[in-house]
Amino acid sequence: MARRATNGGGGAGGDGRARVKAARRPEVRLPALEAYDGAGLAPDGDYDGLEFGQADLTGQDGAGARFMDCALTGCVLDGTSLHHARLFDSVLTGIRGVGTDLAESTLRDVELADARLGGVQLHGSVLERVRVRGGKIDYLNLRKARLRDVVFEGCVLVEPDFGGASLERVEFVDCVLKGADLTAATLVDVDLRAAAPLEIARGVDRLAGAVISTGQLLDLAPVLAAALGVRVED
After folding, report:
1. Per-residue confidence (pLDDT) for residue 228, from 0 to 100
2. What are the two backbone dihedrals, phi and then psi, of residue 221, each rounded to the nearest 5 degrees?
3. Does position 11 have pLDDT exceeding 80, yes or no?
């Protein structure tokens, strides 16, 4: 049942990544799980070692709840309140929902795979050793959140809002990033080189602390010029 974060393999070396520290991936090993009894979420509930399979949690109130060593598979989270929830050492697969409230929550050693979410609220949250793999998330609200050792891999993010957020050792790997808002964000060791396309709607001036590719620099040139007040004429 031991869990250890693993280094993503970047950092020092001759692979061209020496200048940016790699995010540590979560490594979650779940114990034998008991099936969730479907009784419904409760505010400040304590859920340990449970498997939520295809559970419809629409509109339920699990604010302040704690999930430890849990698996949520194919669950529906439309309008579900998980405000200030804590998710540790858990795997979420194929979840879907619109307007899920995870504001001011804590996610640590969590894997999120193949999610289909819209308007999910994670503002003011803390994400540490989190891997988001596959799926699509529209209008992800991460304003003033703290992300450390977070990997977005093979997923589509449409208009994610990182306004005022702190990102440290965050990687976007084969990830579509459309219309991102980085207004007032702070970036440290953020690797955007494998994001394709990379579209930044606001806050391009906050890219200090990130690494991008030469091709991405050329693509962002008009936005950078506009942010700097540079007129480009031939």
Report:
1. 80
2. -55, -45
3. no
Q: Is 5 left (phi over 0), alpha (psi -120 to 50) or beta?
A: beta
Farthest CA pair distance, the chain: 68
Radius of gyration of the chain, Cα coordinates, nearest whole angstrom: 18
Band of pLDDT at residue 7, cut at 50, 70 and 90: low
Q: Which long-range contacts (CB under 8 A, 24 or more apart) does 92-97 make?
A: 97/58
Question: What is the spatial distance between Cα 41 and Cα 79, in angstroms, rounded to a whole number?
Answer: 13
Cβ atoms of 40 and 60 closer than 8 Å: yes
Helix, strand, coil percent content, the chain, rounded in steps of 5: 10, 45, 45
Q: Of 215, 212, 155, 153, whose CA–CA distance to 182 is shortest?
A: 212
Chain centroid to CA 92: 12
CA torsion sign for 9, 212, 167, 93 is negative
72 Ramachandran zone, left/alpha/beta (phi>0; psi -120 to 50):
beta
Burial (CB < 10 A; 0-12, 13-18, 19+), residue 153, is middle
Contacts of 13 (CB under 8 A, 6+ apart): none
Residue with tokens 């697969």: 93
The whole-model pTM stands at 0.89
| C-alpha dihedral, 203 to 8 to 135 to 71, nearest 10° | -120
